[in-house]
Amino acid sequence: MGVNESLSAVVKAFPQARLVAFADLSSRMILSSAGKLSTTQEHLDRLCDQARASFDDPLFSLSVDAFGEPHSAVIMGPENLRVFLRSDTEPADALCCICDHSIDLAAFVAKIRDTLESITHGG
Amino acid sequence: MIAEADDRNPLAQLLRTANETMLGRSLQFDSASGPSLTLDVSGRRVLRLTAAIGLAGTETCLGIEVLEDEHKDNLIKLLQAVAAPHHELRVTSGPIGRGGEVVSVGLPVALLADLVLIDLNDLASDDGFSEPEVEPSEPEPQTMVPAPVLPSADGLASFAETVGPELVAWLVVGGDDHGRNSGPEEMVSHLQGFLDDERDSVERQLDALSAEPGGPICVTLGATLIDGHSILCARLRSDVLLGVVEGDGTNATLTAWRSVLS
Questions:
Q1: Structural domain that includes position B249
Q2: Which of A101, B174, B223, B233 is deepest in the core (most CB within 10 A)?
Q3: Quick check: B231 and A70 CB within 8 A?
Q4: What is the pLDDT of residue A1?
């Protein structure tokens, strides 16, 4: 299954996921995306920047010192929530998602983890 | 001091101290009888033995990068030796050494406790020892007890309490809930120390993630967010909460956040 198909499968399984995007955090680029949310390139760039900020200090160092390197972040705002997932093996590969508050977050995180694993390893 | 001279089972106190250590710490246990032992502990697991004084048989465990199942019997003997009955036992906590961030290995404290028949949650009895006779004391004079300070209904302390038991430690700074906290003292102290040093940096990081500078936001950061531990950081008005989640707190946190926003 290609990247586009994988992302579309996530959106189909979770209608509350408004945007699911595959990103290269090192180059700050969204490489592929799926979902009903209309976005501009500026929005996608900002999403990438927020993903990088999520895995930045000081909270990154706190996590490393306490439990180890974080690969998952959920950002809950007043309007929506963003989920950022980095690959365990290719840290620059990430899924960046914008979701409604009504989503089953635990199930969604598990789903996109499998999806990212599949994309990263070309499965 | 975790065990007094009249304590018949300091080993139970040693294990409970280690079991309450969620964030990576180096724990040095000093017995008044002479021996001393230092452990790297994190996530309720003993990762390694880093130092030992006055104890025989340390060669089987000392210097091992990460303790494994084969080391548990020898480790227990060392713990029993340093936690000698009827001797004071003191603990000194310090920063963890190398590899402290890895919590998926090491020996679970609960396993060690099971092997020596210690109930980590039972403070009333240890290994079946009976409680010492307590002399009846003079009745305490009546004193006025101040009413408990309740968290503000829409504040971060209320949010933390709504998240539930998955949020094993938390602290709020700023606003009406300033200073409110819950969880093991060492964890809360660690969170406090971090915020004392990094509050401004935390605010800047939250500004980068929120819709507007100073806006409400809740961040969870972890390896998987489903198992292990995660960091929880939230801001509401001028208040900041920092906490530790154990296991899957995703839906509980989201439900609590929606509640505080409503």
A1: 156-261
A2: B233
A3: yes
A4: 77
